[in-house]
Amino acid sequence: MRLSAVVHLTGTILRVYAATFLAPAAVCALYAEWHDLAGFAAFGALTLLAGLAAMRAEGRPPDDLRRGEVMAVVSATWLATAIASALPFVWAGLGPIDALFESMSGLTTTGATVFVDFDRYGKGLFFWRGLIQWVGGMGVIALFVVVLPRLAIAGRQLFFAEAPGPTDEQLTPQIRKTAVALWRVYVGLSVAQVTALVLAGMGLYDALCTVFATLAAGGFSPHPQSIMGYGNPAAEWIIAAFMFLAGANFALQYRALGGRPGALFFDEEFRAYAGIVIVASALVAAFLWRSDMAPAAAVRHGVFQVVSIITTTGFASVDFQQWGDQPKMVLLALMFIGGCAGSAGGGPKVVRYLLVARYMRLELSRTLHPRAVLPVKLGGRVVPDDVMRSVIVFMLLYLTVFAGCATAVALLGEDILTALTATIATLGNIGPGFGAVGPMSNFGHLHPVSKLLLTGAMWLGRLELITVLALLQPRVWRMAQWAGTGTRGPRL
């Protein structure tokens, strides 16, 4: 692995990422928040200088990135942008660990917060908090494939390495056009939701911050009580609809908007996703109705919270920590599922569960017919063995990391419910959990080591584990070089 290539490309992306500091700086100027404005200006310049310094590692970005280098660039980019994004939070008074937790939560679209007193922070900081979620929702790498066409082959490799899900799906012959197409869908949905929320009576600033978090499946809200704080049922239905779209495959939505409306409904994963939402919403609404909640409110809150959790958005229209065990159990089960592949949603993804379920069914059939050739199929196509193997490995790694992190958080002093749900809420990029990290609570009280562990869980979850964990192998670093092609061992 050529470290110089990794550093150069990470610096290239970081240099352009510095431009994102301009938007919150403008908001600070609009609301006369001069202290915060100075911070955003200084940290934007610092990020730019850091990117330019890293670019000096190699004269130009290579177009022959190896697999290990691709994974290293993707991992390093998310970590570097999280560190840069944490600087305004430090400027606002958070400690370094809390600031990194908040920025990683934003970029990975987790939505778990350490904010306690929302009145301490200005509108520019809340705008920044939402903006980094919006950028992270479609993917930092995908964005810069759009703005850096000279990445060429390297851009294609980076785009598919960052894209969520077990399969790669290309919309157009050129990867840059694919990225542009997906961003058009993303921006178009964002504009549509802002318009709808403003018409529903929400102020423009709150609507923008809410949209940033909705389409990114993020969950950060400028209101300390999340969406419940607005008391606007019409806005809740609008947000629920757009959360549902954020959890669906953007490539399918592009095809549907391009004249193939059946693209969504003929897709097996989308049908399973929609079916889970319908059944889970009906169950939660029925449990809430039985607990004496009004029927209309039960349906609204049931649909909202089911969609919020399965898409890993994490908004709350009500304090579901106060619900009974039955509806909370439904939400807990959804935390382990996630949205569709190719969406803004986190978690293992619906398609992996479909593939694992079919694989298990075929294995049961093979016990009766050991000589039978029974391939796993999805959408009428045979799933290659290497894809199936990677899906199973991912699921095992996901459960292993979950168990290890939850155990560590519990050993550091948290009760079992808090430890379990805090871990799945961060690893799955969901946001709120139950217990001491419920929807109206925060993660600020956790042990500093727990916060660092959960920050790492968010990073791992957003990059779907293998991208980061593969780099931890000692052989990767034994063969790492600063420059050149190298002659020691296989090319990584």
Silhouette: globular
CA-atom Rg in angstroms: 22 Å
The SS-based structural class is mainly alpha
What is the helix tally?
A: 21
Order of helices and strands: HHHHHHHHHHHHHHHHEEHHHHH
Strand element count: 2
> Which spans of ≥5 residues are poorly predicted at pLDDT below 50?
146-150, 152-156, 485-491
Number of domains: 2
Tell me about the largest β-sheet.
2 strands, antiparallel
**Residue share in β-strands:** under 5%
List keywords for this structure.
492 residues, mainly alpha, 2 domains, two-stranded antiparallel ribbon, 21 helices, 2 strands, 63% helix, 1% strand, globular, disordered C terminus
Question: How does this model look, in words?
Answer:
With 492 residues, the protein is mainly α. The protein has two domains: 1-162 and 446-492; 173-435, no CATH class. 63% of the residues lie in helices and 1% in strands. The protein is built from 21 helices and two strands. The protein has a two-stranded antiparallel sheet. A hairpin with a 2-residue loop joins strand 1 (377-378) and strand 2. Helix 6 runs parallel beside helix 10, helix 9 (175-199) runs antiparallel to helix 11 (233-246) and helix 18 packs parallel to helix 19. The longest helix has 27 residues, at 385-411. The protein starts with a helix and ends in a 14-residue tail after the last helix.
